Amino acid sequence: MDDETGITGEDGKDVAIWTVAKIIPDPTCSDHEPRQPEHDHFVEFDITATRTEKYNPAKYGPLDVGTTYRRQLIQKDGIQWNGMLGPMAA
Questions:
Q1: Alpha-carbon distance 15 to 28, whole Å?
Q2: DSSP 3-state assignment of 72?
Q3: Rounded to whole angstroms, what are the CA distances from 12 to 6, 32, 56, 57, 63?
Q4: pTM of the predicted structure, to 2 decimals
Q5: Beta-carbon contacts of residue 17 (< 8 Å; ≥ 6 apart)
Q6: Going residue by residue through the chain (90 aa), what tens digit of pLDDT does each one get?
């Protein structure tokens, strides 16, 4: 898989990179109150975040996935979705 996204600094060089190592359809729910997906499936992303020497937390904030950074995903029908990753109905 190894799809990447990240933060690019003002000089055009990478500051932080997120790499999607694996997409896991229908993962086992570990929540103490499991629920059913609204649209048939849950999807889990195995993501690794790395930062370069140019990463400055005071300037760029924490490397949280799904809280402060927007993602652009291409849906199965080919339409681009711009939104926040995080727990949500699939």
A1: 33
A2: strand
A3: 12, 43, 15, 18, 19
A4: 0.54
A5: 4, 5, 6, 49, 50, 51, 52
A6: 677 888 888 898 888 888 888 888 888 877 777 777 777 877 888 888 888 898 888 888 777 665 444 455 656 776 666 665 555 554
